[in-house]
Write a structure and sequence with these properties.
Layout: H1 5-15, E1 24-28, E2 50-54, H2 56-66, H3 72-85, H4 89-97, H5 100-110, H6 116-130, H7 141-152, H8 158-171, H9 176-185, H10 188-195, H11 200-216, H12 219-231, H13 234-243, H14 251-265, H15 269-272, H16 281-295, H17 308-321, H18 340-353, H19 355-366, H20 376-390, H21 414-432, H22 440-455, H23 462-471, H24 474-488, H25 494-521, E3 523-528, E4 533-542, E5 548-554, E6 568-571, E7 575-580, H26 585-588, H27 597-602, E8 603-608, E9 613-618, H28 622-635, H29 643-660, H30 689-693
Helix pairs in contact: 2-3, 2-4, 3-6, 5-6, 5-7, 6-8, 7-8, 8-11, 10-11, 11-14, 16-18, 18-19, 18-20, 18-21, 20-21, 20-22, 21-22, 21-23, 25-28, 25-29
GO molecular function: SH3 domain binding
InterPro entries: ARM-like, ARM-type_fold, ELMO_ARM, ELMO_dom, ELMO_domain-containing, PH-like_dom_sf, PH_domain
Keywords: Apoptosis, Phagocytosis, SH3-binding
């Protein structure tokens, strides 16, 4: 490692009597077969096997000529080799410097091939662009048209269509011009056609492009696109062809469904953030329709016969029965935003689509004592706010989350229908709690708990949600709270606290062992670039002797690769420190404005080799983040600091204490130990050696 790379190459070439050492380079035999350069030579580990091969510039020159050959076999082989070598940054730089991209554009623009050769060409183009040496905006209109045509054609190889969709997905976020071009040329109908195919990879790429278009669109464009997709029943497509397909749902597709759900729900944001305008005729009519639906059959005489004063007092009385706090001017209740007009929309939807349930709710409560009635309007406003918080309405999409609700795609008007179920739940819980007006916040807190606990079970349809949430009544919630409280509460007697402290070191050692075992099992991590969510995966695991971290790229679908298949290594002895969150180099590179908070919470890095290099991670979930940061801290000889350590320690302590205190059930433990009795008067059986010696 002390010699310049050129000297090392010369020595090797001389040993094998090879002239022109500058035409050769060293390359890893395993893994991604990266070329060794002065900038990456420090990453070579002891035991890495290198091979002597043609230098990247020679290889780039040879392939540049090869892809221009008139012999089809030579051309296809050259493009295949190019697609594989372009993953290497050194080769990619050499090839691009020779104006190789121009040649690739020529092959695509002028060629009529739609088979294997084109697939290799597009793969090579994707890999070359991945290095960010050139901007996506350099693409010619002819090239883009050709790529679009492969997406729009029917008789094209599936791999070509997948690559074409990927290329367009990468183009969309880079500039407004490219977004408009792709949006115009690739219709939503065409993308919906791709979503209906049996090929899961093609479905995934089509969904990726659809999501890229939605995220790059302005609010107005996004609204129009979502309206069109709704007309075309995208929800049914997804429910039938993706969520309920025979193939299991991959992480990436789960993420796209989460984004689609998030974008759909965020269409409610505008209404949620808009206060009611008391001078708007349309909004006033909606408000009046609530009163009329509930009470029109009650008033025998038509209201028009009454004087203005009488009519006003009647309306005020009815609005009070509806549960508005400001009954003379109910619009005031809807001035708070959020939930703004969204609460009014929900109430109107409930009154129009389930008129019987609506009338029953209002009339049942207006016949109760004043203090025991459940106020419909006030509950609706608060419930709408709770649902917005639970479903993250108005929040930006996370870059990594995959938590979508299958029932969201099983129902039109999901938000409104969910509201209809939950507002009836409010009334049911109110009665079960025998609540009064003072208990309003308490009831809504229980309802929030009922909804979140049921949603965490991931019901597949709203019907199932309704059944489960209604089964989770107030007494069930009380039982669950009681159980959880018992788990959390420990006897606080001093001897028990002392016992806790004594048990801690042993249990912490147990947690350390578990963390290291989890590191030995390994975890699948996803690579995320600054430009887009990548579908590249890598795996990292600790060797059984806890001496070396092994890692390397893996294919989708590989869950637990053997340790031998992971080419890269970091000796634990070389690890210097662990960085988390904003301190990580891969988080500093990203602009803080766009950087999502949840990605920051999952990021960590290992600094190794004299603090020169970093291995960067983004954990798939908070649980894995805690396990890995704890495990790495154990390897570095430091304290485990994650919140998971505390949770696990509390659970183990709780269990251990319960086992140890089983025999003391119903026996009160004194706070102070019993006094030690005085020594007896005949305590003279001590043998004195000194006297014996004398």
């Amino acid at each position: 490692q002390t010699k310049p790379l050129a000297s090392v190459l010369k020595d090797v070439c001389d040993a094998w009597s090879l002239p022109n050492a500058e035409r050769y380079a060293l390359q890893y035999v395993d893994g991604r077969q990266t070329y060794i350069t002065e900038s990456n030579r420090g990453e070579i580990k002891n035991g890495s096997i290198l091979r002597l091969t043609t230098s990247p510039d020679q290889e780039a020159e040879r392939l540049y000529s090869g892809i221009q050959s008139n012999n089809l076999d030579v051309k296809t082989d050259s493009l295949k080799k190019l697609a594989s070598l372009s993953q290497d940054v050194t080769f990619a730089q050499e090839f691009i410097n020779r104006n190789g991209l121009k040649q690739i554009f020529y092959i695509v623009e002028e060629g009529n091939d739609t088979g294997e050769m084109l697939a290799h060409t597009l793969k090579a183009f994707m890999e070359l662009m991945e290095h960010d040496f050139v901007s996506w905006e350099i693409l010619s209109a002819a090239f883009i048209k050709k790529i679009v045509s492969y997406v729009n054609m029917n008789a094209v190889d599936a791999s070509v269509q997948q690559l074409s969709l990927s290329i367009l997905e990468n183009m969309v976020p880079t500039s407004r011009l490219l977004f408009e071009l792709v949006k115009k040329e690739v219709t939503l109908d065409r993308l919906l056609t791709h979503l209906q195919v049996a090929n899961a990879q093609l479905q995934l790429k089509a969904m990726a492009l659809l999501i890229a278009l939605l995220l790059a669109a302005t609010d107005a464009e996004r609204r129009d696109m979502m309206d069109y997709l709704r007309e075309k029943n995208i929800r049914q497509f997804i429910h039938k062809n993706i969520i309920h397909s025979s193939e299991p749902l991959g992480d990436e597709m789960a993420h796209y469904l989460y984004v689609l759900q998030s974008v759909s729900l965020n269409l409610c944001e505008r209404r949620m953030r808009t206060s009611m305008d008391p001078y708007s005729q349309e909004q006033r009519e909606l408000l009046q329709s609530l009163r009329q639906t509930a009470f029109e059959s009650e008033s025998e005489a038509p209201a028009s016969n009454f004087s203005t004063e009488r009519r006003r007092s009647l309306c005020a009385k009815e609005f009070r029965k509806l549960g508005f706090t400001n009954n003379s001017n109910p619009a005031e209740d809807l001035r708070r935003a959020p939930p703004g007009l969204l609460a009014l929309d929900n109430m109107v939807y409930f009154s129009r689509h389930t008129p019987n349930a609506y009338s029953r709710f209002v009339l049942e409560n207006s016949s109760r004592e004043d203090k025991h009635e459940c106020p419909f309007a006030r509950s609706s406003i608060q419930l709408t706010l709770i649902l917005c918080e639970i479903l993250h309405v108005g929040e930006p999409c996370s870059e990594t989350a995959q938590a979508f609700y299958p029932m969201f795609f099983g129902q039109d008007h999901f938000f409104e229908e969910l509201f209809c179920i939950c507002i009836q739940l409010v009334n049911k819980t109110w009665k079960e709690m025998r609540a009064t007006q003072e208990d309003f916040d308490k009831v809504l807190q229980v309802v929030r708990e009922q909804i979140t606990r049921t949603l965490s079970l991931k019901p597949t349809s709203l019907e199932l949600f309704k059944t489960r949430v209604n089964a989770l009544n107030y007494s069930e919630i009380l039982k669950l709270r009681q159980t959880e409280r018992l788990h959390q509460e420990e006897t606080l007697a001093v001897p028990v606290l002392e016992l806790r402290e004594r048990l801690k070191p042993e249990l912490l050692e147990l947690i350390r062992q578990q963390r290291l075992l989890r590191l030995c099992e390994g975890t699948l991590f996803r690579k995320i670039s600054s430009r887009r969510r990548q579908d590249k995966l890598w795996y990292c695991r600790l060797s059984p002797n806890h001496k070396v971290l092994h890692y390397g790229d893996v294919e989708e679908g590989v869950h637990s690769p053997p340790i031998e298949s992971l080419p890269e290594k970091i000796p634990v002895a070389d690890m210097k420190m662990l960085l988390v969150g904003k301190e990580c180099p891969h988080m500093k590179e990203k602009s803080s404005g766009k950087q999502n908070k949840d990605v920051l919470e999952l990021a960590f890095s290992i600094v190794y080799d004299m603090e020169e290099y970093c291995l960067n991670f983004i954990a798939p979930a908070r649980y894995e983040f805690c396990l890995w940061t704890d495990g790495l801290n154990v390897l570095l000889g430091k304290e485990m600091t994650s919140e998971r350590t505390q949770t696990d320690l509390d659970a183990l302590l709780s269990m251990e204490l319960k086992l140890r205190l089983l025999d003391l059930e119903n026996i009160s433990i004194p706070d102070t130990p019993p006094p030690i009795p005085k020594p007896p008067s005949n305590l003279n059986f001590c043998y004195d050696f000194h006297h014996a010696e004398q």
